[in-house]
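[09:14] KT: can someone run the structure on this one? pasting the chain below
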Amino acid sequence: MKVLALTKRRPQNRDLFTRPYGRFYHLPRLLATSGNEVHLVFASYQAEPELTEVRDGMTLHSLRAAPNVGAFYASLLQIASDIKPDVVIAFSDTWYGILGARIANAVDCKLVIDAYDNYEAYISWAKPLHWLWRKALRRADGITAAGPQLLEMLCRYGKDTSSAIVPMAADPLFEPLPLIQSREALGLPTDRKLIGYLGTADRTRGFDLFINAIEQLELKRLDYGVVLSGRNHAELTLPEHRLHRMGYVEDANMPLLINSCDLLVCINKDSAFGNFSYPVKIYEALACERPVLASDTAPARWILCDTNSLLTPLGDAHKMASKMSYLLDNPVTLRESRSTWEASSLILQKLLADI
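[09:31] RB: done, structure tokens below
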């Protein structure tokens, strides 16, 4: 089968050409490993050379999508015309579903649209964009999504479309590592329990709830520290020797960071985004066999197999503090809920065969 896969070059600020990551790269890679001819096209929004390279059994194409969108589309259409794909798979976001539909129509092939978030929640006021997105979903021969809630919503716009849940997964480098050695490698203390916060430490993402929960936890115990990574600006009322701001962490060190923590916390909100969000950080914690506490959204409950001890009520800082304290002393890990890109790729391959 000839597959033309489309995605942006830098989802989540990672350059897929130099830092292979996530469903955007590993699902096409595994399609190629299974004997399909795969062309993976990256749309770059930066002023950088256009590239073509054969890697991991795929042909990678990096095309400049800005500032000349017309030239980008012409180049993409030329690639599609040359390879004559059996199917176009649109990864990444709204624009790629729309673009994939245009290319599939132009070369008369099947179209699969893959989604990992509710993209309409990103720019809720951009109604014409959402109409085009829904039109692309109606055109699709197959729709895949990271979880059941999102798939059900997307399939409302499709007409008798084949569909499948293709779960998120941790990348291959995430695996269990010794806690003490992981901490020593990162310069973290070995004499106390550590709570790691997964995600952007920003009040718009719910970090204020984490702050309030830590304030409640401080009233119960002081034998722990908090680990923050990435960009974080919100203030925690913790002594500096118990607050560890790691800043930007290299990809290779992220498994060390997760394995350093006694508990990982992932917060979401009851919103058009949070109710359809399947955080890969939860999958990374599970792959490292570390306890994780997540906001009790329908997607998180699905990922965590309805395990109540790992779910905390939305907006309840007091309950979150109690759950964190319990899990620090009584760690719970879920090996049966681990997901892999290999398993997800088999689901995608079955859908491709069906259509």
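[09:33] KT: thanks! The chain is about 35% helix and 20% strand.
[09:34] RB: yep, looked fine to me
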